[in-house]
Amino acid sequence: MSPAEALQDERVQRVLATVDSIPPGRVASYGQVAEEAGLPRAARFVGSVLKRFINDDEVPWHRVLGSDGTIRVAGGTARDQAQLLRAEGVEVRRGRVDLAECGWCP
DNA sequence: ATAGTGACTTTAC
DNA sequence: GGTAAAGCCACTA
Predict the structure, then answer these.
(1) For B10, which residue's CA is nearest its C1'?
(2) pLDDT over 70 (residue A28)
(3) For all residues of chain A together, what is the average pLDDT?
């Protein structure tokens, strides 16, 4: 494995680890996750990674939302995300989550 | 190396 | 409270 390859893989691993570290019943924004992962402004990158891992049951991608707690997901995936969040005890209203109540505080 | 793209964020209207 | 534009990072072609 080449160094560069390992590096980009490490970034992904970092993001996944951060998302996995989000406690149940809590949600975090892309920027928040990116910052904790060591990529202060790579919120877009975080989204891209999560998109690739939607089929992965080991990653709680549904706990990651927009900066205002709004679900920035396209398609029917948003409904699944809201449903998953509700199943964890997160109150989802009109495609939105109350960050003041369920926001992740690291 | 250049250009285009994306589940973002912030500021302004 | 929506819509628009610019800025940001990393990836892919």
Answers:
(1) A67
(2) yes
(3) 90
Integer Cα distance of A56 and A38 in angstroms? 22
Residue A90: name the closest of A23, A20, A3, A8 by CA.
A23
Q: Which chain C positions have some atom within 7 A of a protein CB?
A: 7-12
Q: Which two tokens stand for residue A40?
A: 């202060």
A83-100 pLDDT tens trace:
999 999 999 998 899 999
Q: Where are the domains of chain A?
A: 3-93
Q: Is A3-93 CATH 1.10.10.10?
A: yes
Higher pLDDT, A66 or A5: A66
Q: How far is the CA of A83 from the C1' of C8 (A)?
A: 31
CB contact burial A66-97 (16+ within 10 A = b; e otherwise) = beebebbbeeeebeebbeebeeeebebeebeb
Nucleotide nearest to A43 (CA to C1'): B8
